[in-house]
TrEMBL record:
Family designation: Belongs to the ABC transporter superfamily. Spermidine/putrescine importer (TC 3.A.1.11.1) family.
Task performed by this protein: Part of the ABC transporter complex PotABCD involved in spermidine/putrescine import. Responsible for energy coupling to the transport system.
Quaternary structure (record): The complex is composed of two ATP-binding proteins (PotA), two transmembrane proteins (PotB and PotC) and a solute-binding protein (PotD).
EC number annotated for this UniProt entry: 7.6.2.11
Native species: Limibacillus halophilus
Origin: domain of life: Bacteria
Descriptive protein name: Spermidine/putrescine import ATP-binding protein PotA
GO cellular component, one term: ATP-binding cassette (ABC) transporter complex
Alphabetized GO MF terms: ABC-type polyamine transporter activity; ATP binding; ATP hydrolysis activity
UniProt-listed InterPro entries: AAA+_ATPase, ABC_SmlMolc_Importer, ABC_transporter-like_ATP-bd, ABC_transporter-like_CS, Mo/tungstate-bd_C_term_dom, P-loop_NTPase, PotA-like, Transp-assoc_OB_typ2
Protein keywords: ATP-binding, Cell membrane, Membrane, Nucleotide-binding, Translocase, Transport
One biological process term in Gene Ontology: putrescine transport
Listed PANTHER family: SPERMIDINE/PUTRESCINE IMPORT ATP-BINDING PROTEIN POTA, SPERMIDINE_PUTRESCINE IMPORT ATP-BINDING PROTEIN POTA
Length: 356
């Protein structure tokens, strides 16, 4: 990797006794689409606002293109922000909303016309330049807010839940549009969301945040396949999370050290309590075809859930644990009834042992 465009180093933000952000360090590459993902209150917006310069850090440093931003005011940073609530000027037309920034920078009129036309074209809104914000739908207003943010070609675009106010269908369409826009512009995007699917669809890398920290930073695939903690496994995608214990012989046992032996994890180490994670799509019903390396369990079918593209089977194990298996076929569901005896298995390589 080359020189990062943004480097944050042990960035901390305190409000009285509340630590909104705790010693966060990370680097963003030029042209990257990074999502900041986490539940409400985990510090995503605080990190974004620190980078934008709307608030000052309690400790730590932000460097953009090799220059420390600590004393640089927001309007002199090479960044621009798009908010959830659009923040368009209601008394100005679309054109004048877009022209506002360049005009303040005393750009010549013909040049402004050119910039406005370009920015509107980027978001497919050429026909709307004479309208007022109140004459636009939510999705259209957000497109205008976006085009206003990119008109002066910032190096970095900061997006704070920009699709949060839109209905699900429009949000999904805008996700694809935003991803395309990012590819076209080659700007660096930092995108705050609490929606894991949104992050997976758009971002090159995802920073999963919790309690003011980045818990894991990686590509969507890395985070989905190799979550570093129960917290991340639970946040991204569906997961079966089973309390287990590794006994003194290195066997993983369901529940505590008297529970059913599952397998011997490679990274067994000392006796300890752990969480076993296996994704529902990796849990298969029936006996494994080849005997090698599979974990086999028995239980009874508690629920069958039709999910359109397939079926979810909720299985209660004899030990009291519950496991969800997801099959992309609906065929099996017609042969099984609630209470039926079920054998299920998964390949050992699909399970992950997470430290508590
Ligand atoms: P959301 O998804 O709800 O916007 P977030 O992850 O963006 O949440 P932040 O807005 O960054 O969370 O807030 C992080 C923590 O800092 C929260 O506990 C919040 O209450 C606190 N906090 C944020 N701003 C202030 C402030 N101005 N004064 C006091 N506490 C604040």
């Amino acid at each position: 990797m080359g020189e990062p465009i943004i480097k944050v180093d042990r960035l901390t933000k305190r409000y009285g006794s509340v630590t909104a952000l705790a010693e966060v360090s990370a680097q963003v590459q030029p042209g990257e689409f990074l999502a900041l993902l986490g539940p409400s209150g985990c510090g995503k917006t605080t990190l974004l606002r620190l980078i934008a310069g709307f608030i000052d850090p309690s400790e730590g440093e932000i460097v953009i293109e090799g220059v420390s931003m600590n004393r640089v005011p927001p309007d002199q940073r090479p960044v621009n922000t798009v908010f959830q609530n659009y923040a368009l000027f209601p008394h100005l037309t679309v054109r004048d909303n877009l022209a506002f920034g360049p005009r303040r920078k005393r750009v010549a009129r013909e040049e402004i016309d050119k910039l406005v036309a370009e920015a509107l074209e980027m978001v497919g809104m050429e026909a709307f330049s004479k309208r007022y914000p109140s004459e636009l739908s939510g999705g259209q207003q957000q497109r205008i807010a976006l085009s206003r943010a990119i008109i002066n070609k910032p190096k970095v675009l900061l997006l704070d839940e920009p699709l949060g106010a839109l209905d699900l269908k429009l949000r999904k369409r805008m996700q694809i549009e935003l991803k395309r826009l990012h590819e076209q512009l080659r700007m660096t995007f930092i995108y705050v969301t609490h929606d894991q699917e949104e992050a997976l669809v758009m971002a090159d890398r995802i920073a999963v945040m919790g309690e003011g920290r980045i818990v894991q930073l990686g590509t969507g695939q890395e985070i989905y396949r190799e979550p570093n903690s129960r917290y991340v496994a639970d946040f991204i995608g569906d997961a079966n999370l089973l309390d287990c214990e590794i006994d003194h012989e290195g066997w993983l046992r369901l529940g505590d050290a008297t529970g059913e032996r599952l397998f011997r994890p490679a990274e067994a180490g000392d006796q300890r309590r752990v969480t076993l994670m296996v994704r529902p799509e990796h849990v298969k019903l029936g006996e494994p075809k080849a005997e090698s390396e599979a974990v086999l369990l028995k239980g009874r079918l508690r629920d069958l859930i039709f999910v359109g593209s397939g079926t979810k089977f909720v299985v209660a194990l004899d030990s009291g644990h519950e496991i969800v298996a997801e099959s992309s076929s609906n065929a099996l569901s017609e042969q099984l009834e609630q209470g039926a005896e079920i054998t299920l298995h998964w390949r050992a390589e699909h399970a992950r042992v997470l430290n508590k």
